[in-house]
Amino acid sequence: MPSPIPYPPCCVVFVYAGDGESLAQAARSSEWTHVHALAGRGISGVLLLKDAGQHTVLTCESLVTQFLGTEAAEGDIAARFKNLRPVCLADSASVCATAAGSGCLIQRLAAGTAPQDAAALASRNLAKGAPAVFLAVTDPAAAGEGAAPASAWSAALAWVQAFLEAGALEGTLLTIVFAVEAPLPAPLACRVAEAGGAQPMLAPAGPDFPPLPRPWQSFQASGPTGLVDVSRACVGLTLQHLPGVTRCDLMESFQPEAICQKGGAGMILAESLLAELAFKIGHAPKYGA
């Protein structure tokens, strides 16, 4: 009898990274070298958030909440994904409460926790057999809010670098999500605007054919509720990496222009990412096409 397929564990790191317009400038600095290198060996994309119309500012916490599926009242993660019981490390009381409500095991990060210490804690959980670890650094102070935009990105990168250097994460499906708030870089703002706009029309195939509406895309629909409005206030820029598990796209640098043009993960709703990751670690049937 063949042995079971050895599925990898998963580590998802959410990092608050300030406003998006500073990304293009910050990404040119030498601090981004390791992120560009990782992008060249992984797959990148954009996470979109549903805008429920409350006219509130969506933040990194909103991103984590929609990722966990709690806004859709989808219930316990273990029931949805073959007894998946993730460990959630978070610096926010509200994120901890949300994650606990979705069935995660909670480890609250103390204020001012160093990136290296958080990476080590995640590594220990994975070494003990945790199938997935979610880390959410949503405290703006931890990512440098109030300082220059480049400083905010530098602080966020320090967290990413700590996880890249954590040896215990070898063989782990590492997914990094930069939570980016408006104003967004122009290429990214245009793509998000298109996603949340009216249904575009395809050019007619000939003089005898009328123009037809382009089919709605998966990031424009949410389960049985149908079409959704997409927020333009906050998005997530994602980067996944694990050779043999994730595909490798044509990205050479982790910049908005490159993500919009070459990112192999495309654009999906934040609430759809967990199902995709659960499949890759053996806790869900095939997700997507």
Walk me through this protein's architecture.
By secondary structure, this protein is α/β, with parallel strands linked by helices. The protein has a single domain, classed as Alkaline Phosphatase, subunit A (3-Layer(aba) Sandwich). The protein is 31% helix and 21% strand. The chain contains ten helices and ten strands. The chain has helices at 23-26, 33-39, 60-68, 77-80, 93-101, 115-127, 149-164, 186-195, 256-262, 270-280, and strands at residues 10-19, 43-50, 87-90, 105-108, 132-137, 173-181, 201-202, 212-213, 230-241, 266-269. The strands form two sheets. The chain has an eight-stranded mixed β-sheet, with helices on both faces. Strands 7-8 form a two-stranded antiparallel ribbon.
Précis, in short:
The protein has helices at about 25, 35-40, 60-70, 75-80, 95-100, 115-125, 150-165, 185-195, 255-260, 270-280, and strands at about 10-20, 45-50, 85-90, 105-110, 130-135, 175-180, 200, 210-215, 230-240, 265-270.
